[in-house]
C-alpha cells in the first residue's frame, strides 16, 4: 500500500525577484513499511523535499498524496492537524522545546493529538523505556548529550505512532557512537513496521535503508532498491535496478 | 488544551525573573493609577474620604422633638442611627465679628456613627463644660484655634463665654461658608445653658443606610413614619455636592498622566512579549512542526502574556487598594477600580495581540537556528575602524541596528517614558512658576481685605497704612446674566480703567477705558466669543455692554470670569467696593502682613489668596509616582533589549573572542549595542518632552479654561540631570548581563 506519493513536485524560491528552483519535478512513492533514504549533495533539494512532504514548506506546483488523500492543497492549519496524527519529524538539531523537560517534550504531541494526560504519560514512559531514557525523563534538554537529545526527539516523533516518520539529517550533528545508536533505533522502529523517510549525507544511514533515492539539482537522478542485495547471489538482484 | 497549558507552564517556570518584572511593572502602573485617581477624588471632593473615615450617616432628619428612634431603626435599609442630638442656633462672636452657628449636642465619648474626626486639640470632656469642638472649615473661616475663647449669644439674648477644645472634620455637613451656619459640637449640659428653652431647639437624627442608593426611599418612609414632625432632611448627596471642587485643570493633567502611564505600560508589555516571542521563534517553529496550528500558537501566546498582564492588574488593584487605604485612610471607589481594571485589561490585550499574532505566523521549519540578519560593515563603520575608533564602539553600534524593528521598538520604548518624565518635570516647573510668580497667573494681589464693620474708605486707609502694602485696588465681584445662557458668569470689577489692577494679559491688551474688559479662556469658550467682540450682560439688573480687549490667565471658576474696571459698573453696584485687593511690595510675606492687619483689632477681614499651585499640590505626588512607574517601564524595555541582544550575539561573542577581543572589549561591544539605543531613546524622548511639555500644558490650560500661557518647560539643569540619570541607569542595566556574558566561555561551534 502506498503511504506517500508525489507527482511532479516543484518548489521555486524567490530570491530578490530571481526564481531559484530547489525541487524540479519530483515523482516518487513510498510504500507502507518502507525505509527510504534520500541522498544527494548539499543544495540538491533534499531538505526542501522532506519539508514539503511534511507540510512545513509549501510546494510551488505538483501534488502530494498521503494515505490516498491529496494533501498539498491543505491549509497550514489543516497540515498541522494532519501532522499530529500521521507524521513524525526528526531534525538535525534535535529541536526539543527548550523550556520543557524531556517528559513534557515527549508527551506534548500525544496531548496535542487528544490523548488524556494519563495515556500520554504511559506512552511517554513506554517510549523512553524503549530508548533507555527513563532516568532522564525530568531533565532539561540542555542537560542532555546530543545523542540523548536525538533519541528524545525520536521518542517525540513516535509519540502518536505516525504513519510516516520524516527525518532530516538525524545524525548530521552526532559523533559515530551516537550515530550508531540512533541508526539502530531507526532500524528497530522500521522493523516494527514504521514507514521511514530519511534525508542524509551519510552512507551508513543509507545502508540501513530499503531504498536510496538520490537527488541532484532538485531532480531524482537515481532510485535504487537495496533490499535485493541481501538476496542470494546469482539472481537478477545482482544488477542494481535503476529507475527513471 | 492540555498541551497548550503544559507549554505555558513550562515557559513561565523557565523565566521566573522576567515574569516577575513584567507583572511588577503592570502592577506598579495600575497601583499608581488607582492611587492617582483616589488622590484626585480626595483633592477635588473630600466628601467620600471624610464620610468613610467618620462612618457617616447618609440621611440627617431635623425634627422639632426627639423622634421615635425604634421606629426609624425599624425602617428597611437603615443599619445604624446617630443621635438624636439636640441642636440650637446661636450667634458666635470672635475677633469682632458675629456669625450664626449651630450648636449640636455630642456625647462625651465620640459617637460610633457620624464621628467627628479630630484634626487638632481634644474631644469634649464633662470636666470642661465650657469647651466645644468646632468644625474645621468654620474654625478656619472664623480664625478659631484650640484654646481660642469666644462668646455665643442664645436666642434669649444671654451671652456665654466658651472656648475651643478641639477642631474636627466631618463628612456629615458641607464646608463653611457654602454650608451655613457653621457647626460646633458641645456637651448636652453646655447646650442646655446656652439654650435652656427646649422649644427653641431642634433634634437631628442621622440614619446610616446599608445601600446609599436607597436614600430617597428611606427619606420618604421616615417622613411617613414621623408623620408631620420632620422639619427638613439633608442627605449625603447634598453634602457631597457642596464639597465638590470643580477643578478641570487637575482632572485634565491627571487624565494626561493616566494616559501616558497606560501607553507606557502597553509599550513595555508589547516589548516584553515581542522580545520573548522573538527569542522563542525556534521553539515555536518546533511546536508547529509537532502539529500546533497557527491559531493555537497565537492563542497560547495571548493566554500566557495576557494572563501575566491580568495578574499584574489584579495585584496592582489590590496594592492600590492597600496603599490608598493605608495612606489616605480611604479605599478607592469601586467605580474607579472597575474603570481602571477594564481600561488596563484592554491595553494589555492590545499590547499582547500583535506579538502573539506574529508568533502564530512563524514558519514551521525549525531547522535553522534563529540568527540575526547579517549586516555588512557600512562604509561609515569601515572608516571609523580606519581612523582607529575603539573597535568595540564600532561593532556595538553596528550590532545595535542589525535588527531594525526591535531597535526602533527599544528606542521608542525608552523615548516614550522619558518624554512623559520630561513633561512631568514641565508640569513641576509650571507649578513652581505659579508659586514664584503669582502675578503671572492673575494673582498679583496676595491679600484681599473686606471692610467688615468698617466703612470701605476706612478699610482702605488702614490697609494702606501697613508699610508692606504697595497698592489697594477696590473690587466688586458680581454674578452676571448673559443672553442665551441659563447660568450666570462671574464678573470681577477690580481697579479702575485709569488705574487697572495688574492682570496678566496674554493676548490682546489691558482695558483702558470704561466699557472695556478682559476675560479668561473659559468665558471666551463658554460664550464662543473672541477678543474684539462685544458682550451684552446684565449685572445687578443693569444692562451692560462690554468690549473684550484681551485674554488673561484666569485660575478662578475654570476661567469663566470677566474682569473690568470698577468704573464700568453702575455706581449702585460699584460703591462701596466689596473688597480691596492688596498688592504687596517685593519680598513682603503675605502671612505676616495678614497677621499684622488682623492682629491690631482693625476689624478687617483679611484673606490670603490661594495659589493655584497649592490646589494642584496633589499633582506633585502624582508626578513622583509616575516617574517611578515610568522608570520601571523603561527598565523592562531595557532588560528585554539586553536579553535579545545577548541571544543574537551568543555566537558572535565566541568569534569576537577568537579574533582577539579582550573580555572587556566584548563587554564594551555588548554595552554599546544596547546602550546606543538607550541613549538615542532617552535623548529623543527628553527632546520631544521638552518641546512638547510647554505646548501640552498650555493645551491643558486652554481646555481647563485657565487659558494658554501657563506652560513652562523644565529648566535646562533639571532636564540635563534627568537625562544624565536616565542614561547612567540604562548603561548600568546593560552592563550587568554584558559582564556576565563576556566572561562566559562560549565554544565557537555552539549551535
From TrEMBL, chain A:
InterPro entries assigned to the protein according to its UniProt record, in alphabetical order: AAA+_ATPase, ABC_transporter-like_ATP-bd, ABC_transporter-like_CS, ABC_transpr_LolD-like, MacB-like_ATP-bd, P-loop_NTPase
Assigned keywords, A-Z: ATP-binding, Nucleotide-binding, Transport
GO cellular component, one term: plasma membrane
Sequence ranges assigned to domain ABC transporter in this UniProt record: 4-242
GO molecular function annotation: ATP binding; ATP hydrolysis activity; transmembrane transporter activity
UniProt KW Repressor keyword: no
CDD domains: ABC_MJ0796_LolCDE_FtsE (cd03255)
Keyword Translocase attached: no
PROSITE patterns given in the database record: ABC_TRANSPORTER_1 (PS00211), ABC_TRANSPORTER_2 (PS50893)
Listed name of the protein: ABC transporter ATP-binding protein
Species per Swiss-Prot/TrEMBL record: Acrocarpospora phusangensis
TrEMBL record, chain B:
GO CC term (a single one): plasma membrane
Cross-referenced InterPro entries: ABC3_permease_C (IPR003838), Macrolide_Exporter_MacB (IPR050250)
GO MF, one annotated term: transmembrane transporter activity
Domain ABC3 transporter permease C-terminal: 256-361, 626-743
A Pfam family hit: FtsX
Keywords attached to this entry: Cell membrane, Membrane, Transmembrane, Transmembrane helix
Transmembrane segments: 20-40, 249-270, 307-330, 337-357, 407-431, 617-646, 667-697, 717-736
Membrane-topology annotation of the record: Multi-pass membrane protein
Keyword Transmembrane: yes
Coiled coil start-end: none
The organism's place on the tree of life at top rank: Bacteria
Keyword Transmembrane: yes
Compartment(s) where it occurs, according to its Swiss-Prot or TrEMBL record: Cell membrane
Family: Belongs to the ABC-4 integral membrane protein family.
Protein name: ABC3 transporter permease C-terminal domain-containing protein
Natural source organism: Acrocarpospora phusangensis
